[in-house]
UniProtKB/TrEMBL annotation:
<protein>
    <submittedName>
        <fullName>Glutamine amidotransferase</fullName>
        <ecNumber>3.5.1.118</ecNumber>
    </submittedName>
</protein>
<dbReference type="GO" id="GO:0016787">
    <property type="term" value="F:hydrolase activity"/>
</dbReference>
<dbReference type="Pfam" id="PF13230">
    <property type="entry name" value="GATase_4"/>
</dbReference>
<feature type="domain" description="Glutamine amidotransferase type-2">
    <location>
        <begin position="2"/>
        <end position="248"/>
    </location>
</feature>
<keyword id="KW-0315">Glutamine amidotransferase</keyword>
<keyword id="KW-0378">Hydrolase</keyword>
<dbReference type="InterPro" id="IPR052373">
    <property type="entry name" value="Gamma-glu_amide_hydrolase"/>
</dbReference>
<dbReference type="InterPro" id="IPR017932">
    <property type="entry name" value="GATase_2_dom"/>
</dbReference>
<dbReference type="InterPro" id="IPR026869">
    <property type="entry name" value="EgtC-like"/>
</dbReference>
<keyword id="KW-0808">Transferase</keyword>
<dbReference type="InterPro" id="IPR029055">
    <property type="entry name" value="Ntn_hydrolases_N"/>
</dbReference>
<dbReference type="GO" id="GO:0016740">
    <property type="term" value="F:transferase activity"/>
</dbReference>
Length: 277
């Protein structure tokens, strides 16, 4: 599992989320408290919006706490909207192309969780990505596949619906291959104007997700874990929820992947008669 943090609001330095808080994202990289693994050292990344519609992107394979370039960047760059991620691999290689966030045009995306058995049906998942988008497939993660499938499913006009359809396709493949947990995810994504986040699991173990509005900062943080242990006003996001953040507003809707009643079999075509739990 991974840890991530996002922010939307009045411009702040990246370090105000990434490195300065007592339980900052860099601290979580080596001492996460609400994660299956305390260490998240398989790379990091940050995508931020500033003067152009497309986000800036910086990713590397070092542990976040040992990269002095990341700290230097965070101390100097201000942004009103950014996504940052520290990675713990669920099986794919430690490489820059496998580090989050992922970007496409003005969209940025990051994910924490797993799709059960992905290493067994990665080819089938890749085949679901349209040819027109496949040249954007740089790495080998389930997260990037989910993102590109969502782009193909209409992310530009319908972020929630696109992710419900994309997540449902990968869920069905996991069910067809009989590997659990079929789907666990928290995601953050943005088009540069709004910040979106979701929390979902096909079982009872959805990864943690919180958000908090700061009146003094005039902005909102959306995180895997609270950034300060002494702040009691972090709002937990319930499983099965899609959030939209814009200015000081937070709107929640149900998130339900569009799945079939039968998973996709090992050929990637015909359904298997299996029970979806």
């Amino acid at each position: 599992m991974c840890r991530w943090a996002a922010y939307i609001g009045a411009p702040i330095f990246l370090e105000d989320i990434i490195s300065r808080p007592a339980h900052s994202l860099i601290v979580q990289a080596r001492d996460a408290s609400e994660c299956k693994t305390a260490i998240n050292a398989d790379g990091f990344g940050v995508a931020w919006y500033a003067h152009r519609p497309e986000p800036g992107l910086y990713r590397d394979v070092l542990p976040a706490w040992s990269d002095h370039n990341l700290r230097a960047l965070a101390e100097q760059v201000k942004s009103s909207l950014f996504l940052a991620h520290v990675r713990a691999s669920t099986g794919t290689a430690t490489s820059r192309n496998n580090c989050h966030p992922f970007t496409h045009g003005r969209w940025s995306f990051m994910h924490n969780g797993q799709i059960g058995g992905f290493e067994r049906f990665r080819k089938r998942a890749d085949m679901l990505i349209p040819d027109a988008l496949y040249d954007q497939r740089r790495g080998a993660t389930d997260s990037e596949a989910l993102f590109l499938l969502a782009v193909a499913e209409g992310l530009e006009d319908d972020p929630k619906g696109a992710l419900e359809r994309a997540a449902g396709q990968l869920h069905d493949l996991s069910v067809g291959y009989g590997t659990t947990p079929h789907l666990r995810l928290t995601c953050a994504l943005s088009d540069g104007d709004r910040l979106y986040a979701l929390r979902y699991a096909s079982d009872d173990f959805a990864p943690s997700l919180y958000h908090r509005w700061s009146a003094s900062r005039n902005g909102r943080a959306v995180v895997s874990e609270p950034l300060e242990t002494g702040e009691a006003d972090w709002v937990p996001v319930a499983p099965g929820t899609f959030m939209t953040f814009e200015e000081d507003q937070a709107r929640s809707e149900p998130f339900v992947p569009v799945t079939s009643s039968a998973g996709m079999d090992c050929t990637g075509t015909a359904p298997l008669k299996v029970m979806v739990r």
